[in-house]
Design brief:
CATH superfamily of the largest domain in chain A: Winged helix-like DNA-binding domain superfamily/Winged helix DNA-binding domain
CATH class of the largest domain in chain A: Mainly Alpha
CATH architecture of the largest domain in chain B: 2-Layer Sandwich
Order of helices and strands of chain B: HHHHHHEHEEEEEEH
Distance between the termini of chain B: 55 Å
Strand content of chain B: 15-25%
CATH architecture of the largest domain in chain A: Orthogonal Bundle
Oligomer: heterodimer
CATH topology of the largest domain in chain A: Arc Repressor Mutant, subunit A
Strand order of the largest sheet of chain B: 1-2-3-4-7-6-5
Helix content of chain B: 40-55%
Largest sheet of chain A: none
Helix content of chain A: 55-70%
CATH class of the largest domain in chain B: Alpha Beta
Distance between the termini of chain A: 53 Å
Number of domains of chain A: 2
Number of domains of chain B: 2
Strand content of chain A: under 5%
Largest interface: A-B, 45 and 38 residues
CATH superfamily of the largest domain in chain B: MucB/RseB, C-terminal domain
Structural class of chain B: alpha+beta
Order of helices and strands of chain A: HHHHHHHHHHH
Number of strands of chain A: 0
Chain lengths: ~170, ~230
């Protein structure tokens, strides 16, 4: 139990942050984190859990998807458009950001993103996870993560520059 | 600076970090989780099925994991019962109270069982003709919960099967009746020093009541779910 506590409890803030931004509801986020802790306890085997943070965040992320009713099957079904839709853009591709963008409009734009983009963006920008960690957490190859991140940023830019949104979406 | 570090450095990244800063888990959430884990740590010890020096006897830790996961289910359920809202919650509470009242009545008089038998092949057929369903009857004597018998009881306006088990000096009533709902994990409430566990499995709803150690009652619930 002590080993479990020292492995998992330091990551409660990260877990709550992920759940809160993924689910956009405080009560749901609390439920997801609590459930995830119990699940983590159930599956925790010390020698196998080398790096507790991504391991625990993966459980949190999966709980969030369950609570949202997003089946992993459905997420897999949309996988193809990660790599075949168009080649990943440069990170700085897209329109220049105009001045005066408010935090609220950023939050809104992020919350409008499809969840597979939102989660990689949160993990990368907010949680500062490495590509490898994100790959483990969302259970996808690193290459897919990089392309998703790039597309997530691209979409976000488009959403934040309303006048050019249509042009960029084609 | 590596490419990977650089890609979090742009104007867009800065905007996102400003709009969505890392959050701190609320203190009460942290405390709830800590106390759940503490309760689990304490409760793992007196589990009757495990040897007293289980941590030495079981280097593979599989036993404590099994015990922990069982408690886990009970604990998680207790939580969830706390969040059931409105009518459902009131209904659950009414049934829990009804189950406790039946349990107490069964111990007050001399009416614990209508059919006294430790043989499930005697108890199960006995219900036929007295109820419009056939409750699953498990023999759990080898796991420390000998079957004492059964009776027909009355909870929430319907006839239900009451299975009576014993654990040490304690009696356990398990009330069973059909439900249209799907399987649920075990939820627990404590009323007046008694523990009431509820779960749904295979189209039957189960309410187990006893003054036995909640951990032991959780063990019974786990056994009956398998």
């Amino acid at each position: 139990m002590r080993a479990f506590e020292s492995a998992v409890l330091p990551h409660l803030d990260a877990a709550y942050t992920l759940a809160r931004y993924l689910l956009r509801d405080e009560d749901d986020a609390r439920d997801a984190v609590q459930d995830a802790c119990l699940r983590a306890l159930k599956y925790f085997r010390e020698p196998q859990v080398v790096d507790p943070r991504p391991w625990f965040l993966q459980i949190v992320r999966n709980r969030c998807h369950t609570l949202r009713g997003t089946s992993s099957a459905r997420a897999d079904a949309t996988e193809y458009d990660d790599n075949t839709h168009s080649p990943p853009a440069e990170d700085d591709a897209g329109p220049e950001l105009p001045p005066g963008i408010t935090p609220e409009s950023v939050r809104n734009a992020v919350s409008q993103l499809p969840v597979k983009f939102r989660e990689v963006l949160i993990l990368r920008e907010v949680q500062a996870c490495s590509y490898e960690e994100i790959a483990q957490i969302v259970n996808a190859p690193v290459g897919t993560i990089m392309s998703r991140l790039s597309r997530a940023r691209q979409r976000l830019r488009q959403a934040l520059v309303p006048g050019r949104a249509g042009e960029m979406l084609t | 600076m590596s490419d990977e570090e650089r890609d979090r450095d742009g104007a867009l990244s800065a905007l996102i970090r400003e709009a969505m800063p890392p959050l701190t888990a609320p203190d009460d959430l942290r405390e709830a989780i800590r106390s759940q884990l503490r309760a689990r740590g304490r409760a793992a010890l007196p589990l009757s099925a495990t040897p007293s020096r289980w941590w030495l006897a079981s280097p593979r830790a599989s036993q404590w994991l099994a015990a922990a996961s069982l408690l886990l289910v009970v604990g998680a359920g207790g939580w969830r019962l706390g969040r059931i809202q409105g009518r459902d919650r009131a209904q659950s509470e009414a049934v829990a109270q009804g189950a406790l009242a039946s349990h107490l009545r069964s111990l007050l008089g001399d009416h614990l069982t209508d059919v006294a038998s430790t043989d499930r092949h005697t108890v199960k057929p006995w219900f036929a003709g007295k109820l419009d369903f056939s409750p699953p009857v498990a023999d759990l004597a080898t796991q420390g919960f000998p079957l004492i018998g059964g009776r027909v009881d009355y909870i929430g306006g319907r006839r239900v099967a009451a299975l009576v088990y014993k654990h040490g000096a304690h009696f356990i009533n398990v009330f069973v009746w059909p439900t249209s709902g799907g399987d649920t994990s075990v939820t627990s409430v404590a009323i007046q020093g008694y523990t009431v566990l509820h779960w749904t499995k295979g189209g039957m709803t189960y309410w187990a009541v006893s003054d036995v150690d909640p951990t032991a009652l959780g063990t019974l619930a786990g056994l009956m779910q398998n």
